[in-house]
Amino acid sequence: MERLQKKHLEKMKEEKLAGGIAVDDVTELETLIGEIRDEEKLAEESRDSDGALKRVEEDRQAAEEMPKRAMERFAETNFSFNAAATTTDISHDGPY
């Protein structure tokens, strides 16, 4: 199949370069090969766009998760700081 597609592409290039020269009529086989090539190109583009959409969705989810994690870390740090401040024994010999 790959060989047929390559041969078809070469023929199409020759016809394009020939310009005003009359060329053979396109056969049904050549038409089908062209259609198959177009379908494969569309399928490849679809796979690429699906992968891009998946990456965008993963990035969006990660971006939503970041502030949550930051707040959790802040809360943990703030809690441990407050806990340390209240449990520290502050004894001194002064009027205050």
Gist of the model:
With 96 residues, the chain is mostly helical. 80% of the residues lie in helices and 0% in strands. The chain starts with a helix and ends in a 9-residue tail after the last helix.
Give structural attributes:
96 residues; mainly alpha
What is the secondary structure topology, with strand pairs?
Layout: H1 2-18, H2 28-87
Helix pairs in contact: 1-2
Describe it.
This protein is an all-alpha fold. The protein has one domain. It has helices at 2-18, 28-87. α1 (2-18) crosses α2. The termini are far apart. The mean pLDDT is 77.
Strand portion: under 5%
The sequence of SSEs as H and E is: HH
Annotation, overall tally of beta strands: 0
- The helix tally amounts to 2
Low-confidence runs: none
Distance between the termini: 92 Å
Q: Structural class of the secondary structure composition? A: mainly alpha
Described by strand count, sense and barrel closure, the largest sheet is:
none
Residue share in helix: over 70%
Number of domains: 1
- What's the overall average pLDDT, rounded? 77
**Which of globular, elongated, flat, extended, rod-shaped describes the shape?**
rod-shaped
The rounded Rg comes to 34 Å
